Amino acid sequence: MQRSRPVKTVGSAQAYRTFLSELLSFGFVGVVGTLIMILGANLMRALLGGSPVTSVVVPTVVSTLASYLLNRFWVFRHRDSNGSGREVAIFFALNGVGLLIQVLCTGFTYYTLGLHGGVAYNAGLLAGVAFGAAFRYWSYKKWVFTPAAA
Questions:
Q1: What is the pTM of this model?
Q2: How far is residue 41 CA from its own chain's centroid?
Q3: Burial bucket for residue 52 (CB in 10 Å: 0-12, 13-18, 19+)
Q4: How confident is the model at residue 139 (pLDDT cuts 50, 70, 90)?
């Protein structure tokens, strides 16, 4: 006698599609934010002759604001928002933690492992971006863009 396999319910299939859609949309927003930061920093440095710090800080703030707006009104639009500054403050704080993760990965590669080449630098940077993005996605769902009230 053959046992029948449990069939996925419509609810779990819908939840999987929602998760996959959120994840892909979140990744796209991340790419857009990264492009804003990199292109903005290079444009400010080349065209305006700004300091390296200013050339990175200003585009990073613009990128974070764009990421918040895209995440709030596109990726997590189906989740609750109370319209207060709390959501924005937590979003920016969690982005700071994500940035710290990126810096720690890059610093670990450079200072701890002593790898100073371009390939090692970019590998550490990419690892930091991946770990930071994973943290951001998890933390946004947990603390910023909470599930809609039923």
A1: 0.68
A2: 18
A3: exposed
A4: very high
